[in-house]
Design goal:
Layout lengths: L3 E6 L3 H10 L5 E7 L3 H10 L5 E3 L4 H7 L3 E4 L3 H13 L3 E4 L7 H14 L3 E3 L7 H9 L8 E9 L7 H4 L3 H18 L3 E9 L11 E8 L4 E7 L12 E6 L2 E5 L5 E7 L2 E5 L11 H15 L7 H20 L3 E2 L2
Parallel strand pairs: 1-2, 1-4, 2-3, 4-5, 5-6, 7-10
Antiparallel strand pairs: 7-11, 8-9, 8-15, 9-10, 11-12, 12-13, 13-14
Helix pairs in contact: 1-9, 4-5, 5-10, 8-10
Amino acid sequence: MKKFNVAVVGCGWAAGVWVDYALTRDDVEFKLLVDINIDAANELRKSKNLSCEVARKLDRDIIERLGVNLVFDTTIPDAHFETVTTALKAGCDVFGEKPMSSSLEQARKMVEIAKETGRTYSIMQNYRYNRGIRGFKELLSPEIIGDLGTLHADFFLNPNFSGFRAEMESPLILDMAIHSFDEARFLSGADAVSVYCHEYNPSWSYYKGDISAVVIFEMSNGAVFSYHGSWAAPGFNTSWNCNWRAVGSKGTALWNGGWESQAEVYRNGEFVRVEPKFTWDHTLENQPACLAAMFKALKEGYEAETICTDNIKSIEMVFAAIESSRTGKKVWLK
């Protein structure tokens, strides 16, 4: 049995969630916890009853000395490039938090390095891994709603995040909408070809950067995906998964972002309601389900659903949207 000798880089909340799942596996051994705030590394080690080493920085020497072969990158976006490229160049596979990077140039370079080193770099896209979205995707099949023409997501919440999100230029688009953009690719089975985006920041916002946005994507299958979101929306909040509507040639499907989705389709001269069958195995959901999928792919030698060579297409949507917002123009994705 292959043993995964794991280093966790970035010891905040996300790291705790990842470690909790990994501790349920008998093929994982934690070798190292890394954080520039060494107290955070020590606290994580203590809270999870681990006996591994702690350090302030990940480098090749410590990777080789401890025999690390898998790195969990749960750092902030600005630290992803250094963490991931250091690990890949030292011969490690990497599971990393989204977004891949706070720079598109860096994200593309990370993909290049993964290819050059022959190592695996997969990204956490936990919003793909829940019962609700899998059921909704069933309803979007051509057999149910027909040819997809419109996909729409509403996202309205009012969290008061501190830390790096409060200082980002485009916190909603870069840190949150990446989930919805990736979900749109997953649901539609298509990639974005163009985007127009308008970002804005309400006067009551907690954030320095634009925290609200309206975004319109044209997709490679001819469908249009529209997103309207805000992190400055007190009252009548949506799910973190958004509220979704999909319109096809035979009918419309709705998903409330939880477990409830249904389609209304025209059959035999009348509209009928269709419920999903929920064929997806939801023994695990969210981060544990995504991690389990990444581990399975790595062990069995195939590409994970969120492999970097595919996930780059989701982060490209993010940066194209930001470019459109800055320039006030429609942007074509390469």
